[in-house]
Structures are given as structure tokens and as C-alpha cells.
């Protein structure tokens, strides 16, 4: 790839747009959004189902594009929970029910459903009491969804539930019924991305169509048009969700450049598609799927263009070498993003994907061919090959996940560490361009060294995080001396461990309890804990604790009344109502955590916990 590709104005515009959105944009409902009708007890809205329904225990759920509320024009999206009704893609519905804010708990490091929906521009939910179709979808959409439903029906009828789920996941992104153990195995083996219809699927369909058309001697332009048409149909059948639409749009941009006589290539197609998507849907910049698909595609394009393989190598060697390069570049570029979402690193992913990625492509083609043959009652010709391929694929996933170190817990990356990592990766990916690598060595080195250093100097990690989940409290404290303390054990260990990972650590130097009350939540079950301090057993009010470089005082429990008055619970009664607080010295000031992590005080500043939120106090 010629280094001039990095000088294109659109690339600089895209980088500037991403930075501006990441720093200053916050998803919010528009003036006519259905969100502004929340104060109404019951509403009747009309809207179009924008995806395929997700089955839950008590409802069928789908995102609906809103057209009107109680007869008045409206806009925006609503997440509809429809009882006793299965919505069909692109049907226009009339829904009567109660609007509500999406349920969400902003607990540090944990999944927040309301934030997830907000990044999709959905700020409202509706629980239906009555639903009806007022306008069926146009016939092309009905045909597409009928084919999708028929493919899944054939898989479910032919294979056992888990194998049918794998077939549906690889081909259409509809993974169906997977046991929790098998789903975890896909995660630990680094193959979870193969169960999601992604840009790779669109590329595979496009390439297979091009190869098929070439057998019949079709011209290049005609071949590209046919390939785009087939890939477009597949994109619709697979659900037309964001990764698929992005990949298809990128392919369309690249083909448009070819037809216009511009040698822009796939790189320019990726940049154009990303820029347009962010202009129309700015919240996409916060979506993990958008970040991962964009970075993975970019890494593969750059790596396969720069690291060319010798032509004298045998074809099968070059094939697996390219798979290795694509897998390695993808694993590297997605490492910080994957770690910051799942807090684990798959060590077997590099090896497993060299085998599972080509096998998934084979499985994709084989399962679709099996479906086509069933239409002419000849499915028996491919039934056993498809079954053996599915069973082999499942066995390999479980094999790669079985290693003790297949997936290791990992802390989230800081901004400085990510900038440093991507600067080093940029230089490494462009190493074959010797002159360009020589010119960019010093700037990249400055970023590699300077970004973490600047973060360490100007952005202290010392914080108190007050965590609240339905009035169950705990606190995570990063001290100025570098220790990490957990105060309280009211929250589940898995949720506390996620909070620790988010702050950038994988262990707690100490767990400090507030009272003698016993709890079933033991953080040491999921992460290493240096020591556990129990009041009235290990320490008493007035004692001093030394944890690493941090000194703390144990004091009687500090509380606040509803009227805002602070008081101290002095004296020991021997009951589990006795409690303590903890104070540490920082910058000549004392910082104290109130009993049961209900508030934190530093000098004259007091921060209180907030129900289902994370409150932060800088130390």
C-alpha cells in the first residue's frame, strides 16, 4: 500500500470527526422523539419494526421506528416488548401500551442496558397491552424474511439445538439455543465473532459470487454488479444490522470508485463508508461493534497489502499464511477493545482462528448449499457432510477453550496505553514500507513513550468510586500510593471484579468490611485479594492500618440523617449493627469513606452514592 494513502484529506476529516464525537457528543433524544411522551400513562403509537424479533421468556422484543404517538407526528425509536405477539421485520405496527425509560444500572465496569440502547438512539421502551399490524411490509421484505425463517426452520429440523444454533450463527448471525457452557467456550477460544453475521460474511459471499461468475466468462463490471446484488440480498436475509450494512456499503463504495475510474481501492471505500455512517448516526462511534468491525477491516487491508507473500510459495502455503496474517492483525488491533469490553484475553485465539475462520467459511457455504438442496428434496446429499462439519467445528471450539490459559482475566486499558499501543502497531503494520517506516519512527516513538507518561503525570488514577445497586453499596478506592482497596461486600463478587478491571487492576490489595454482618459475597472467589479486614475482629476504631504505601485510620461508623446531619455511631453493642468507617491521608487532607460506602468526604467536599449509579470522588 502506497504511503500517500495516509495523506488523503478525507482520512484527516474522518479522524477529526471521530475525535470530536468521542470528546463532545452525547446521544440525546430529538425534539420530536417519543421519549418526550413518557409522562403519559398509556399511549398508542405507530411505527415500523426495524429488525428481527428477539425471543424472551414473556415477550418478543424488537426496535420500532416511531411515526406517531396518539395520532401526533413523532420521531425516534422505541424498544418494544410485545406480549403474545411476534412482530415481523418491516411491518408497520400499532402498539398500545405504557412507555418507560429503559432499565439500566450504571455500575462501574458492568453492562448498562440503557446506555447500550442510547448508543443505538433508543431512549424509550414500551410494554404492550395490544398490538396489531396496520400495514404489512412490501413484498421484497416479506420474501427476504420468509427465506430467513425457512433457513432457520430447516436447520432446527435437521440438527440438534446446539448444532442448529451454530449453523444459524455462522450463516445468519442467529445463534439460537446455545448452552452457557458452549457460549463461554466460544468466548474463551476467541471464536465468538464467528457466531455473528459480520463484514467477513458479506466479503465471503461477494468473493464466491465473483468466482462463480468468472467460471461463465462474465465481464468484470457485470460480475461486480451481480456480486453486489447477491451480497445485498444476503445482507437483508442476515438481518441488515450495522456490521453487515457497513461492510456492504464499503463494498459498494469501492465498486463505485472502480466504475468512476478512480483507483481508490477498498481502503478508500472503508473510509468513505465510515465517514458517511458517522455523519448520519454519530452514536455509532460508541458502539463496540462499529469499533471492532472498522478496526479489524482496516488492519486486514493494511496488513495484507503491505506484507506481500512470495509468489513462488505453494498456493496452499500462501493461503494459510494470509489467514495467519489476517488473524494476527485482527487479534492485535482488537486487543484493547476486546479487553475493555470482556476483561479477558484469549491466548489460543491466534491459533484457533487460523483453523476456525476457514472452517467457518466452509461451514457457511456447506450449510447454505444444504438448504438449497432441501428445496428440491435432495438435502440428503449434503446432510452428513454438514453434520460432520458442525460437530467438528463444535469439538474444535471446545478443544481450544479447554486449555487452562485459553482466556486470562485482564484489566481495562487506559487512554494513554491505548494511544501508545496503536502508535506502535501503526509503525509495525507499515514496516515493509521502509522509507515511510523510517520517517514515522520518531513520531511513533514519541507517542509510544509520551502518551503513558503524560497520563501518569497529568491524570492521576486516585479515585473513590461509590457503587450502588438497588441500595446495596460498595466502594473501590485507588489510593495515591497506588493501592486498590474494596470497601464493603454487599455487591456480587462478579460485579465488583468488573469494577476493579475497569479501573485498570486485576486484584484488590485489601477488602475492608464495615461491620461483623456475614455476607455470602466473597470477592476472593473471583479475583486475588491481598487481605480481608474485619472490624471488631481484626481491627477496632482507633487502630491504624498499613496497606502497602497507604495508611488508614479505623473510626466509628459515620452516617447522615435524612435531614443532612452527620452523626457517628459510637460504642460496641456486639450486634451486626455496629459499624466503622475508614480514613486515609492524601495531600495534607483526610479522605473518609462513610459507613457502608454511603458517602465519601475529602476536606469540605462530600460525594454521596446515587441509586443504581456510580459516584466518583477525586482524591
Name its key features.
globular, alpha+beta, 6-stranded mixed beta sheet, 619 residues, 4 domains, 16 helices
Question: What topology does this entry show?
Answer:
Blueprint: H1 9-24, E1 43-49, E2 54-55, E3 60-69, E4 72-73, E5 77-82, E6 92-100, H2 113-118, E7 122-135, H3 139-158, H4 161-172, H5 180-188, H6 199-215, H7 220-237, H8 242-259, H9 265-280, H10 288-306, H11 315-342, E8 344-346, H12 349-375, H13 380-401, E9 407-409, H14 415-429, H15 434-458, E10 463-469, E11 472-478, E12 484-487, H16 493-503, E13 510-512, E14 532-533, E15 544-547, E16 550-560, E17 566-569, E18 580-586, E19 589-593, E20 599-602, E21 605-608, E22 614-618
Helix pairs in contact: 1-9, 3-4, 5-13, 6-7, 6-8, 7-8, 8-9, 9-10, 10-11, 11-12, 11-14, 12-13, 14-15
